[in-house]
């Protein structure tokens, strides 16, 4: 599997990639737990079939302290006992926010109520932003045919320089 285009090797593409990464750094600094950010990113990436992003967020979640059991169960979170109610709300929001074309109603009021129950306004802003940004990143990865498997944790550090 070969990438179709190296976005970073292109001057204009680099500007876009750096700005996209800068948004992720702002989200990372939020009070939304890092493990929740990674679980959300992993789940959206699984849904969208982005191997590059699945690779990144599995490894970054492990680096942030996630257990292999929880990582293996993200795809089946509804049928597992290892996620908190807050994480389940975040994962439901992720699925509904990722599958907009499949769900004519978008995010359900029930899911939104669960998110409001477990997260404050700053965390909700971060959570909604994670869902939006990972979906954008998944599109880059899938469209450009970026393969998973070669990511090393922290390798994008300093990309905004």
TrEMBL record:
InterPro entries in alphabetical order: AhpD-like, AhpD_core, CMD-like
Alphabetical list of Gene3D superfamilies matching this protein: AhpD-like
SUPFAM superfamilies: AhpD-like
Ranges of residues in domain Carboxymuconolactone decarboxylase-like: 27-96
PANTHER family attached to this UniProt entry: 4-CARBOXYMUCONOLACTONE DECARBOXYLASE FAMILY PROTEIN (AFU_ORTHOLOGUE AFUA_6G11590) (PTHR34846), BLL7811 PROTEIN (PTHR34846:SF7)
Superkingdom of the organism of origin: Bacteria
Listed name of the protein: Alkyl hydroperoxide reductase AhpD
Entry's Gene Ontology molecular function annotations: peroxiredoxin activity
């Amino acid at each position: 599997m070969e990438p179709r285009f190296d976005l970073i090797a292109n001057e204009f593409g680099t500007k876009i990639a750096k700005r996209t990464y800068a948004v992720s750094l702002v989200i990372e600094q939020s009070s939304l737990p890092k493990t929740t950010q990674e679980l959300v990113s992993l789940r959206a990436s699984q849904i969208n079939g982005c191997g590059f992003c699945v690779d990144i967020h599995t490894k970054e979640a492990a680096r942030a302290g996630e257990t292999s059991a929880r990582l293996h169960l993200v795809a089946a979170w509804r049928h597992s006992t290892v996620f908190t109610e807050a994480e389940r709300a975040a994962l439901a929001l992720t699925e509904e926010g990722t599958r907009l074309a499949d769900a004519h109603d978008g995010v359900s009021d029930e899911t939104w109520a669960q998110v409001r129950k477990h997260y404050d306004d700053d965390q909700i802003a971060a959570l909604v932003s994670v869902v939006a940004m990972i979906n954008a990143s998944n599109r880059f990865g899938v469209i450009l045919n970026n393969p998973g498997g070669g990511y090393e944790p922290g390798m994008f550090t300093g990309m905004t320089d």
